[in-house]
Write a structure and sequence with these properties.
single chain, binds (2Z)-2-iminopentanedioic acid, seven-stranded mixed β-sheet, 17 helices, Rossmann fold, alpha/beta, globular
Length: 445
């Protein structure tokens, strides 16, 4: 590591002790953009990087609610409003027992560059809670969401901060959150995205992260003279993102043989198609957070406590959560003949895994480029809400295609050298420059 980066990271760690995930996300960006930063005295003078790693505002609050047995429960709520240089803060809410400030800061930091890559006017933010829906009733989830919004409402708004879903927050939760916001403010506005289709949501938003990721993979494959048709994929996770990706892969003639949960992974050699794809939605709605029942339902093998990366495939798509693919997994995938890995989860690969891919000049792309289709269609939902009009699914899908193509072009422009596209560098530099220039133009704020 060069000494400039080392001292930058030392300063960051001293100011933010214990925030390992946040440090990991910052280091990846800083390593990618350092040359650009170093070569631009205007950025350095304005301490753009130092400013970027400090969220504009961090809100933490108490979320008291009562469970079905009448007992009081207390969770912690967060909203990290990271950067508004390009537009209102924008990014999802994550409800999961693993949520900490470090996780939400890494996500909000990543979101700033991702949103910049989409070309749409959105700043970066992230929020959530350590609440988990696992084992909770629908009524408990509703009461939790109402209590969460009873504090959050004062910090957000359609021109200020526009949350959406992430892990543990889907259409059901967005509905309860929106209902409570509307009740408190007496306003029907586009304050959240991922809304239901009948009340302000956008067509294709549920599918957007997965579809966009597969469109991005199509561009990556084209660069190496390949296509989706006939390829075998491993996918991790079984939530909204995995579901969208699998649907699109099937449509394009690929085959997906794995999905996974915290309990292990299933291997379905015939491919996850038709009713098996719909079954994923049932699994998710059960609130049990396990994938093993798929094996019983369809008579396939289940590998407890194992990760899908040991399966022999052409393409691997981490679609679950951060750091779910490590260096040993990366080496095994390469050894088994895998030709491409695209992170669909945010920071799905550990730093060592990312370095391993790049050092092998392996075709690999990071989450902030690959999964940007989700937030991009959230941006399109905001546009439709502002117009008070709904586009057709063809219209939204066409725009999603254009945006993913654009992100791929940006990655190529900033990341291609000597025939190899370093998508990590391309995405980080492409995302960074736009935010940095906007911050410079807006003065010392
Ligand atoms: O990580 C992400 O980009 C999201 N969870 C979606 C954010 C959004 O505002 O749609």
């Amino acid at each position: 590591m060069n000494t400039g980066i080392a001292s930058f990271m030392e300063g960051l760690k001293a100011r933010t002790p214990g925030e390992a995930e946040f440090h990991q996300a910052v280091l990846e960006v800083v390593e990618s953009v350092w040359d650009v930063y170093d070569a631009n005295p205007r950025y350095k003078q304005a301490k753009i990087l130092e400013r970027m790693v400090e969220p504009e505002r961090t809100i933490m609050f108490r979320v008291p609610w009562s469970n079905d047995r009448g007992e009081v429960e207390i969770n912690r709520g967060y909203r990290v409003e990271f950067n508004s240089a390009l537009g209102p803060y924008k990014g999802g809410l994550r409800f999961h027992r693993s949520v900490t400030l470090s996780i939400l800061k890494f996500l909000g930091f990543e979101q700033t560059f991702k949103n910049s890559l989409t070309t749409l006017p959105m700043g970066g933010g992230k929020g959530g809670s350590d609440f988990s829906a696992k084992g909770r009733s629908d009524n408990e989830i509703m009461r939790f969401c109402q209590s969460f919004m009873t504090e959050l409402f004062r910090h957000i708004g359609p021109n200020t901060d526009v949350p959406a879903g992430d892990i543990g927050v889907g259409g059901r939760e967005i509905g309860y959150l929106f209902g409570q916001y509307k009740r408190i403010r007496n306003e029907f506005t586009g304050v959240l995205t991922g809304k239901g289709l009948g009340w302000g949501g956008s067509l294709i938003r549920p599918e957007a992260t997965g579809y966009g990721a597969v469109y991005f993979v199509q561009h990556m494959l084209k660069e190496i003279g390949q296509e989706v048709k006939g390829k075998v994929f491993s996918v991790s996770g079984f939530g909204n993102v995995a579901w969208g990706a699998i649907s699109k892969i099937n449509e394009l003639g690929g085959k997906v043989v794995t999905v996974s949960g915290p309990d292990g992974y299933i291997y379905d050699p015939a491919g996850i198609t038709g009713p098996k794809v719909d079954y994923l939605l049932e699994l998710r709605d059960s609130n049990n957070d396990v994938v093993a029942p798929y094996a019983q339902e369809f008579g396939v093998e289940f590998f407890p406590d194992a990760k899908p990366w040991e399966a022999k495939v052409d393409i691997a798509l981490p679609c679950a959560t951060q750091n779910e693919l490590d260096e040993a997994d990366a080496l095994m995938l390469i050894k088994n003949g895998c030709i491409l890995v695209a992170e669909v989860s945010n920071m799905g690969c550990t730093s060592d895994a990312v370095n391993c891919f790049v050092n092998h000049q392996f075709t690999f792309a990071p989450g902030k480029a690959v999964n940007a289709g989700g937030v991009a269609v959230s941006g399109l939902e905001m546009s439709q809400n502002s117009m008070r009009y709904n586009w057709t699914s063809e219209e939204v899908d066409k725009r999603l295609h254009m945006i993913m193509q654009d992100i791929h072009d940006t990655c190529t422009r900033h990341g291609k050298s000597g025939g190899y596209i370093n998508y990590v560098k391309g995405a980080n530099v492409g995302g960074f420059v736009k935010v940095a220039d906007a911050m410079l133009a807006q003065g010392l704020v």
